[in-house]
Design brief:
Bound molecules: pantoate
Number of helices: 10
Order of helices and strands: EHEHEHHEHHHEHEHHEEE
Strand content: 15-25%
Helix content: 40-55%
Radius of gyration: 19 Å
Structural class: alpha/beta
Largest sheet: 6 strands, parallel
Distance between the termini: 40 Å
Strand order of the largest sheet: 1-4-3-2-5-6
Number of strands: 9
Length: about 280
Amino acid sequence: MMKVIRTISELQQELSVQRDAAKSIGFVPTMGALHQGHASLVKRSVVENDVTVVSVFVNPTQFNDKNDLKNYPRDLQADCVLLEGIGADVVFAPEVEEMYPEPDTRVFSFAPLDTVMEGGCRPGHFNGVAQIVSKLFYAVAPDKAYFGEKDFQQLAIIREMVKQLDIKVEIIGCPIVREEDGLALSSRNMLLSAEERERALTISRTLFASVDYAASHSLARTKSFVEEAINATDGLQLEYFQIVDGNTLQEVKEWGDSDYLVGCIALFCGKIRLIDNIKYKEVK
Ligand code: PAF
């Protein structure tokens, strides 16, 4: 039977029993409003660990926009139904006061990873992510933690954060899950009107088309191809599209500049901000 826990002390009590019994702990941090993308992380954790903990916490310190925080979808009951159905063992759903009894004044630097893309457009966002994820890692002390590649920059920053803070956890990146028509799953999709959702399809369609385009065009031309397609779609407002080295997240100029190339996009669809990404090259 899945347990829903509200406090860090109760969580630690529960997990110390599991650890004493030599059980491995997998952890999936979320902000709730769960979809099949989250479910894919939880299912993987259930397969790879004895105990799976999922946190559901809308973290105020990572929102640079008050309205975005206010409108962020919340439905703990529906989340718990989904999580119980796929085998999660513990849901940790604290109140804000539990995670931040006092303001967290820690300031992180993950430069140059956090100065580009989302870091440039959403000041303070990754600092807030690092604050909450580090607190959650201290509370759960998982063996493995699972993050989606849709938040590609977040994943790179979490990897850097655990190095800097010397937190012993294996960070596992999991592939983007898409709707059948290609739209990357996101909790924010439920805020789109039917018309906006239709427009949002241009994002994945353009990214997929750009992979074919890239086969016979320069990187600069491919970048323009994506930018022009988004700009030509009514109701979409491009924030950035960058083709970056998948490790350093720095923009590259030529296809030959790296063995790991990812195109990252952020845009507004109406009032809703969406991100997505596509791999052009990944030599493992
Ligand atoms: O990716 C998210 O949902 C959030 O940024 C995370 C990692 C749960 C931290 O609040």
